[in-house]
Amino acid sequence: MKIGEKDLLELSPLSKEELQPILEWNRDTSPQFLCQWSGWSFQYPLTLEQLLKRLELSDSCVLKITLSGSLIGTVELMRVSREEHSATVGHFLLDPSCTGRGYGTCALEQVKALAAGMGLETLYLNVFSNNRPAIRCYEKAGFALTERLTLPDGQTGLRMRCLLRPKS
After folding, report:
1. Cα-based distances in Å from 15 to 1, 22, 93, 122
2. What is the rounded (10 degree) CA torsion for 46, 52, 56, 59?
3. Which H or E element spans position 25?
4. What is the pLDDT of residues 57-81, one digit of tens each?
């Protein structure tokens, strides 16, 4: 998928050898930043060991987002259910220098195409209600609000859904 005239954005499986940038993007941040993109899947501070464990999950596919061959982010297709033809998009993180440029929406369009190619019909995601830039990105990619959730810590979360194929 093209961004501009020269740049090419691609998704492919993330390998163990490519985890260092994720750690760098989280260095000198806060527990809130980590929670914003990963929910409660990781503990602050983020470590290589936590990321390696994530790569081992059987119902998950961790993808790298590259732009003209350079790693700019990651996204995970998790809780993949062949029976329900659904999955959850999560752990979506872009290099902070790459946000606000449309790369996130482009990556989500590719995630949708990948999921449809796997025979999935519905994608879900969860986002904190105060994360307006992410919500705008998700809406641009075709996700719609389905539910408001009160989280254990008192924050409001939003459950969003994108239908990949009409239900028959």
Report:
1. 22, 12, 16, 26
2. 30
3. helix 20-26
4. 999 999 999 999 999 999 999 999 9
Does the bond joining 21 to the residue before it have cis omega, within 30 degrees of 0? no
Q: At residue 117, what are phi and psi to the nearest 5 degrees?
A: -65, -20
Is the CB of residue 23 less than 8 Å from the CB of residue 51?
A: yes
Give the Cα separation of 146 and 48 in Å (integer).
34
Tokens 């297709």 correspond to what residue?
Answer: 77
Q: What is the pTM of this model?
A: 0.92
Q: What is the DSSP letter of 20?
A: H
Q: Which among 33, 104, 34, 100 has a CA at the least distance from the CA of 67? A: 104
